[in-house]
Amino acid sequence: MLLDLLDLKKLRLIMFYVAYLLLMLFFQDSVLGNLKILGVKPLFFPAALVAIGMFENGIWGGALGVFAGILADIVTGYTALFTMLLPAVGFFAGVFSRWFINKRFFAFLIAGTAAIFVTGVLQAVKVWVFNGQFSFAVIFTVFIQAIVSIPFVAPLYYPCKWINERFGYLRSRKES
Question: Are 116 and 46 a contacting pair, CB within 8 Å?
Fold first, then answer.
C-alpha cells in the first residue's frame, strides 16, 4: 500500500539530482576551494540549482534548493544565506525557463551568472550589515567573482541536461 504512493521514476530522478548536487558541492568546496583567480574563489554552486530549475520545474528547483542550501551552509559556514537563497534561485530559474527564457546553453550561462552575481551581492550585504564594511572594493569583488565563475558554470549544463533527458519529467510525459 505504501509502495503505491511512491513513484519510483521520480525517486530515481531525485537520487540522480542529489548525487549531482553532492558532486558539485564537493568540487566547489574541496577541489576548487583553494583556487584563487584574481584574488577571488570561483562560485558555481548556485548555477547547479539554475540548471535543475531550468530542466525540471520551479517546484523541483526549490525543493532541491532547500537540500542544497542546508548542505552549502554547513560546508561554507554561513548561518542561513544559502538555505534562503538557493530555493529561490531554483524556483525562479524554473519559472523563468517556463515563461521567459529557453532551455538552451547560452540562456543557462546568463541565468547561472546572474544567480552567482545575486549570491555575491547578498554576501556583500551580509558583510555590510554585520561588519559595517562597505566600499567600492566589495562591489568590484562581486563583479570579478561573477566573471571568474563563468568558465566553471559552463560544464554544469550538460550533466543536468543528460539527467533530464534520461530520467526527467519530459521523458515520463512522452512515455505516457
Answer: yes
Residue 39 class from Cβ within 10 Å (0-12 exposed, 13-18 middle, 19+ buried)?
exposed
- Residue of 3, 47, 30, 11 whose CA lies nearest to 159: 47
Q: Assign 66 a pLDDT band (cuts: 50, 70, 90).
A: very high
Give the gyration radius of the chain's Cα atoms.
Answer: 17
Q: Is the pLDDT of residue 19 over 90?
A: yes
pLDDT of residue 22: 92
pTM exceeds 0.85 for this model: no
Nearest residue to 42 via CA among 114, 155, 150: 150
**Grid coordinates representing 6?**
511512491
* Alpha-carbon gap, residue 94 to 135, rounded angstroms: 34
What domains can you pick out in the chain, each with its CATH number? 8-168 (1.10.1760.20)
Tell me which residue of 5, 170, 25 sits closest to 86, measured CA to CA.
25
Q: By three-state DSSP, how is residue 11 classified?
A: helix
